[in-house]
Amino acid sequence: MESIQKKKIAIVTGGASGIGLAIATEYVKNDIFTIIIGRDKEKLQQAKNNLGDLCETISFDLGNLKQIPELVKDISARYGKIDILVNNAGINMKKEFCDVTDEDFQSILHTNLSSVFAMSREVVKCMIEKGSGSIINISSMASQYGIPKVIAYTASKTAIDGMTRAMAVELSPKGIRVNSIAPGFIATDMSAKALNSDPERKQKVMSRTPMGFLGETADIGATALFLASDGAKYITGVVLPVDGGNSIGF
């Protein structure tokens, strides 16, 4: 335990697959002790098997807001500090605007926004004690421009960008940097399935991405490593698109 406390301690939510796992992988590779939080015990165990001793897993539903203070308190007591928080866990829902119910809308906001706020608030309490920390929120292209059929997801990710800036202004004087990564179209099993079954959408994505190819989850991992490092010590309140130029593409 003593040797672990000498290392940076990171929490990555939704860290058992996709972008979250890529970030956790990059952190572990760079000697950061990484706690990944997720709901799927099997996926968590698989990630732990691959990542080894520098990874710890916690099975927890972040929708359970009332339990978040206890969760963070336990982590802080066990490891003595939290240096990095990556708020990656999130859900999406594709539905026609008029078909989205109030319950649908609230459910997405609850997971993608309320749990990010609650998790950040509790972790910040620990970070303030030692006067340093880095928080990285995961945003989306949906907050850069309009995408049809994802109204609740878009609302949540646009709010994440606003929250990133507000948090940065309030917390940076206390030594805590807050930034956001807005991934473009990244090659994951989920996106590959979605794009391959919809050639028109795939063509649209590619035609407005100047680099002309999909990103990899490792690209987001490398960016999250940079933003948490001393190389980014003068960067705060930024929403950084990692998108092959998609957000500025014509």
UniProtKB/TrEMBL annotation:
Superkingdom to which the source organism belongs: Bacteria
EC id: 1.1.1.-
Gene Ontology MF term list: oxidoreductase activity
Transmembrane regions: none
Pfam families: adh_short_C2
Key words, A-Z: Oxidoreductase
Family, per entry: Belongs to the short-chain dehydrogenases/reductases (SDR) family.
The protein's name: SDR family NAD(P)-dependent oxidoreductase
